[in-house]
Design goal:
This is HhH-GPD domain-containing protein. Keywords: DNA damage, DNA repair. It holds the Pfam family HhH-GPD. One of its GO terms (biological process) is DNA alkylation repair. Residues 40-189 form the HhH-GPD domain. This protein is globular. The protein has two domains: 3-26 and 139-198, Endonuclease Iii, domain 2 (Orthogonal Bundle), CATH 1.10.1670; 31-132, Hypothetical protein, domain 2 (Endonuclease III, domain 1), CATH 1.10.340. With 199 residues, the protein is mainly alpha-helical. It has a two-stranded antiparallel ribbon. 58% of the residues lie in helices and 3% in strands.
Length: 199
């Protein structure tokens, strides 16, 4: 049984979302540039972030190109703080102090612990990396506002739940909470730039 079929059995809401949107999956990202994208996404809408990512992509998608063009990164629409974070991450990958390939074989908790030691990478950003770069199927970003708003609308009569309530509800979506997450995102936005694809 695939993840979509599993999710549809979890509760009536998830079954409705799967029926409405069909089989969705996360758009898989490059391990390095996907991490950079996740930093860009912080506190931005998918639409705004996708515009910045497109401009950043035109500069280069490797650690070497990011470091080489560090002086012009603010011109793509990034804040100075995010530029600092991105350059720091690129240098760490370039120098080997952050080994992204090694993360492929680590548990979700180990990946979170490793990535969150980096400046500019908190739990949410690391969770985006798990979802979009490492294809992990059981990730629920409980602090994500889009997820919380969708859950509030679909499960709590419009009352936005806190992180603890999201995690409690999400227990029944294991082991495919990533798929619950992308359906919740999809239900709350008409933004075509959301990084979710139809299977």
């Amino acid at each position: 049984m695939g993840p979509h079929e599993q999710l549809a059995l979890k509760d009536d809401v998830m079954r409705m979302l799967v029926q409405k949107y069909g089989k969705l999956r996360p758009e898989i990202k490059d391990k390095f540039f996907g991490l950079i994208e996740a930093v860009v996404w912080q506190q931005l809408s998918w639409k705004a972030a996708s515009a910045v990512v497109a401009r950043l992509r035109s500069i280069g998608t490797t650690p070497e190109s990011i470091v080489a063009h560090s002086s012009i990164l603010t011109g793509v629409g990034l804040s100075r703080r995010k530029v600092e974070y991105i350059i720091s991450i690129a240098k760490a990958v370039e120098q080997g102090t952050l080994d992204l390939e090694a993360l492929t074989w680590k548990s979700d908790d180990e990946v979170l612990a490793t990535l969150t030691t980096m400046r500019g990478i908190g739990e949410w950003t690391a969770q985006m990396y798990l979802i979009f770069c490492l294809r992990r199927e059981d990730v629920l970003p409980a602090g994500d506002l889009g997820v919380r708003k969708a859950i509030g609308r679909l499960y709590f009569n419009g009352s936005v739940p806190d992180r603890k309530q999201v995690l409690q509800l999400g227990e029944k979506w294991k082991p495919v909470r990533t798929y619950a997450t992308i359906y919740l995102w999809k239900s709350g936005t008409n933004d075509s730039t959301i990084p979710v694809l139809t299977v």
